[in-house]
Fold these 2 entries.
Entry 1:
Amino acid sequence: MSWLTDAFSGSFAQRALLEAVMVGVLCGVVGVHVLLRRLPFLTLALGHATFPGVVLAALAGVNLLLGAGVFGVLVVVAVALLGAGDRIDETSAIGVVLAGTFALGVLLLSAQAGFTRDLSAYLVGSIVTVQLGDLYITAVTGVVVLVALALLHKELVLGAFDRDGLAALGYPGVALDLVMLLLIEAVVVTSVPAVGTILSVALIAAPAATARLWTDRLGVTMALAAVLGAASGAIGLALSRHWNVAAGATIVLVASAMFAVSVVVAPRHGAVRELLVRRRAGRGASLAA
Amino acid sequence: MTRLLIEPFQVGFMQRALLAVLLLGVLAGAVGVFVVLRRLAFVGDALTHTVFPGVVIAFLAGQSIFLGALAAGLASALLLTVLTANRRVTADAALAILLTSFFAVGVVLVSRLQSYTADLSAFLFGRVLAVDPSELAQTGLVAAVVLATLVVLRKELLLRAFDPDGAAAMGYRVDLLDLVLNVLIALVVVAAVKAVGTVLVIALIVVPAATARLLTDRVASMVALACGLGALGGWLGLAVSYDVSIQRGVRLASGATIVVILVGFFVVALATGPARRALARRRDSVGVRSPRGGAR
């Protein structure tokens, strides 16, 4: 296990570890909501859409996360408006918005040849260069998002499963949807510096999908997803230092590996179990016959 | 106008680039109609990302990028089918995980190279101005295969899009038709990878088709419009990025310029929609029974 402890000596490595673990927990918990509401594609679009925001913010000399956040809100509004019309379905609307915003980012970047900050690092993340200020932002966002999720837990879950029921009980359904989208966006924007615009959705979808394979209870799913997200962050970071490869991508691969293993061996919903159940059912049928 | 639209294409590499984007515009437009009708934009986007590691592995191994992309595209189409067989895993979660993990494999491999960021951006965004004749021939070949398949299977694919139960009841293999469409999308990505890169292909597929959907209710005109808009956007995008680079000294990535122009078409179609519909309604009420009456 020495590769694990060796990887985190030195203050920048400890900062990176702290960031990876915090982002992992945050993405894991929010990911359960994203999967419940079938929002992975919108989350992916949010990640892509932060790119032009980051480039513009760098040009204007303001905080990059601010630019990313503003563009994320624009995407949510654009998708909501386009999807509300009857001619374009929501998936195509997301596709158009995703492609358009990302191309805008590339265009802006290409016009800035010899740019001082290497913004292409934003595409795949650069957790190793994370600063103390980034850590504070992640921590504050994390606390706000987790508290909001805890306070609104019942309403958000009900809204995901039964929108009509939520409306019948007198809750403001649209406002709650909006709150959920803003929380997801906050998590995407804070995780982008660590794992990048394209890969941030992985840390949201993979731990949550893995947790769902192991348990049927929502509270347990969230706790498990948080642990798996944090573990993906720490193990992925250590492996990337060990093999000297891109950190964000390695974190994603660890999270996907956990998912791949769980799809096969998970006790309740894994492929092995389903095979056994089917064979037992087959034997029972042949005995009955 | 001549200076903008014709003059740039007197040089050899610009002619090849123009031919490539025209081919890709028509190809992606035609496939895109089915992607939009079937609401497969997410699947299309996932396939564009999963082709990426194939490109990188082929590049590292010194093999044809075309073959690498093809292998990765087929492998991901297969894995997607296997993953969604587990009822506990929804299709969108499987797509997100597959997309990002394939993409991450590509990033990890590229990050081992010395020229990390330069290579990465070439793979992601393409180099349309560096397309050589043999790549053009490959693109042409793929376009011929894909368009021929679409023509032969158009009835079956449309039936599958609008009435999957009906198609199954009539004895068509719906899962096989789905696999065919996924492979066609992967082929478009493979054909476009060198010119516009893995990330922007999805724009060529989805945006012209969505624009055409805004403009017409008939599938045949939708296909024609999507192909036309895709090709026109490619031509304009190349011309504008060349003109701005040469005349104004501002470098604009050609692939991204094409996409921004395509999105511009979409926005115009969207903004003029209410006006066009009002006009059509007025025409309908003036001519008592116009042929398009009751369309909407």
Entry 2:
Amino acid sequence: MVRATVTPDSGDASQAPVSQNDQPTDRGSPPPRLRQGLSERALGRLFVSPSILLMALVALFPVIWAFVLSLQLYNRRQPQGFGGFQNYLEALTMPRFWDSIQFTFLFTVTSVTAEFVIGMGFALLMNQSFRGRGVTRAAILVPWVIPTVVAAQMWFFMFNITPGFINNLLGLENFNWLGQRGWATFAVVFADVWKTAPFVALLLLAGLQTIPGDVYESARVDGAGPFARFWHITLPLLRPAILVALLFRTVEALRVYDLPQVMTRGAFDTESLSMLVQQYVVRTPDPGFGAALSTLTFVLILGIGLIFVRLLGRDLVIGTEGSRR
Amino acid sequence: MRARTLMAMGGAAALLAVAACTPSGGSGGGDSNEIVWAIGGAEAQPGGIHQKVAELWNELNPDTPVRIEILPNEADQQREQQALELQAEGSGFDVLGVDVIWTGEYQENGWLESLEDVRDQIEPVVLPGPFESAIWGGELWAAPYNTNAGFLYYRTDLVDTPPTTWEELCEIAIEVGQEEGIGGYIAQGAQYEGFVVNWLEFYWGTGGDLFNSDQSQVVFDVDRATQATEFMAEALDSGCFAPGFNTAMEEEARNEFQSGNAVFMRNWPYAYSLIEDDAESPANGNFGIAPMPTFDGQGTISTLGGFNLAVSAFSDNKEAAKEFVVWAATDPQVQRMLATEASVPPVMASVYEELSDDPVMALLGEVLADARPRPASPAWNEISVEMQRALFPAYNGDADARDAAETVRSFLESTIN
Amino acid sequence: MTSTTADPVRPKATRSLDLKSRRAARRRDAAQLWGKTALLGVILLWCLFPFFWLIMTSLKQGDRALNSPNLFQGPFGFQNYLAVFQQNFHLNLRNSFVVAGTTTILCVVIGTLCAYAIARLPMKGKVLLLSGVLAVSLFPPVALVPPLYELWRSLGLLNTWEGLYIPYTAFTLPLTVFILTAFFSSIPRDLEEAAKIDGATPFQAFFKIVLPLASPGVFAAAIIIFVQAWNEFLLASTFAPRHPEIAQTVPVAIAYFTGAVEYQRPIGTITAACVVVTIPMIIMALIFQKRIVSGLIAGSVKG
């Protein structure tokens, strides 16, 4: 709806007049040049390069290192020579790997869904004006600013039979939340939802701000109820923010480590992929196998992340589609 | 105005980037004569017993002073930090506080200096169990420093004499537990290293073992292992084990017993003084300690804990470091201090005789004679993880006990050769 | 559509009908208010009860109180807080502030530029670029630690602030870029066009028109970056594990708390430290999120 006014621009890029502006490397003395105006293409390259440079410098080296490492065989830390894809084969045939994938997926789907629903509720609430909304907004963010490791220990304390805060609160004598299959998973998911729903809320709240008020106004004039307004206006216009929130929650949840590690230590089928990776990198180090597991995890998560990027790509890049041709 | 805020932010960024040059602190390298002792936990904190030991050494040896580099609280994280430094062959640490189960692994990685040449100074005065935990491949790699053993805590107001067999313990636990409306036996039953320690006490209590004495052969007995696991499974079902047994670590167990919710507890000596100090605890003044039961009522078994002190292979100050670790293991004053000032069980046999008036020390003296270390194998961490993954579900009724024992046996076999 | 048919009916409505509907509306409002209040109560309870537990626990003294399931089991006092600050915790706070603050500023500045370029400027292979950016943040962090540790060691970056905020910036940039790209692309293009017609350069159009409009997104991103950098544990515990006087951050320092004796869990000091670090964060979040909500209004006045 809003985009109806968008006009594709192609003029500026092609007209870029001054030739020396094609060198985006000189960042030292911008003011005089900016007055003349960088061409959009040059500006684009200039804007992108610091990010790319920094990320490549920090992240590329260890990823390549890990891949090279994953082709080596080790007996604990003792190198045993080149092994090709043997580590990968071993990982893929390990039942434990698939068990941890199963838990990780279950955890991701349930926690991200719940976080999205609750986070959306929080965001809609934070976006309204009412008495005491300042306090409410601060309160909603509290769970998220507590360090994860502390939050995990706290929820262990809450759920565990000793000392048993939740059992005390609900009048359940000795319900063993963390000591049985199913409920252990529930407790971990619950703690994660509590902790990260505010993150989703914050992203969605910011997204809500970009929806102009007059869109709602005209819908109200058209007689649309609150639910219809939410469904037909809020949701579609919030799509990029929703996708970004879901994307990052999903990839974070797929790498969950602290909560299950502290709360259940992987007992009762709550071992996540990252816990498995951690074991082979740190606890019982086998650098080659650990690197292979990491690479597999990476590929898996990247695959899922790319689905989101495809969906998002349309939203994010659409505006410049015209000028690209 | 908004643009100005952002401008200001940009300016602040530039400023911070310039200003954010880390203050150069006084530590790092320093004296080449200094011995850096990397150890963690409560006793490494200012005022802790490790600090006192270091102070004592520094009085006697001002030329080669010891400085403690405090490591995190959790053993896993201590090991991680040591491993990072040692893997990079850094000389940042001279003396390493190593958990008794890390010896083999560190040695295999070439991180430790052999102490074979000072073996004859250490072996005669130190208890055999802790000494064994510092041996791998027939050679001495660390000097025992402090040890630890578990024993049975019981409520003297509810139980007349402590049980000597597991059957007896469970009978009392169920009966008294039901009468009083409290749990029976609490120990370390969560899926972690402590569970392996506890399971081994059951298993060793059946007469089984993992390896032969020089750890060249697997002697793991599947029948006995099955018996131990099945006993635990039954005890969990029948209510012999207190609620929350399968998520309890040291502190959960202590808390349960201390708040009067359990008849029996297996724990390390540390719990003794904490319960004694708690005036409101129902257990206060009403508890005693005894050796752990076995299946046939003969003798007692405990799994050893504790820390050894090793010399880093990358130390710039090996001779002095070696002197220090030998001194800490064999000096009567140091070893006595551990017991009297911090209730950290020492490794020197003679101290237990001297302190036999103290109930904890007297019992420890008795228990330690039969206590066993976990194998010093470099593969111990893997073995432990595998045992947890096989045996924990089995005792929780999610897997077959015999299958679990078979799994453990074949894994043990795979670590040899 | 429905409103056009309803309109002519209105003037004919009688007084009594009007009154009745007004009363009904008032009743509906009251019910709505109650519903809202109840909902608010539930939300506050959900969010704050665990925090309340943290505060109560941090004030408890002695082993018995700390291990009791009763929140109001005393004795109470400030001992845990004193103990926390005796361990140089103020230095840890300083380190965390510098590291998280620098990360936030670097990330926002660099990320804003990148996001604007992706959202608005002509460029080839944008989807590929976005995929690459995302990939950076997806490798299991624990596997990045060993190689980065070696690299940091040889570069002399261990135990420095730089050693922390450089990787933090790199690993948080993807999130920043995605959030901001989503914002820039949702801002109507005609504003920029108008500016350009008025003679603004592309950079001026970005800096004076688009950036202010995107400020809700910028501030939301800033809070998120700050909190993530503040709470990061894995890299911090590897690259600056010790020495509060140099670069050890808050979460790492908490891992060094111990009980009075071996095995005893330091719940009291952990919760106290947690309260100490949470309160400034809440204040910060409050200030920042005001910007998130009021950002658009202020921006549109200007635009």
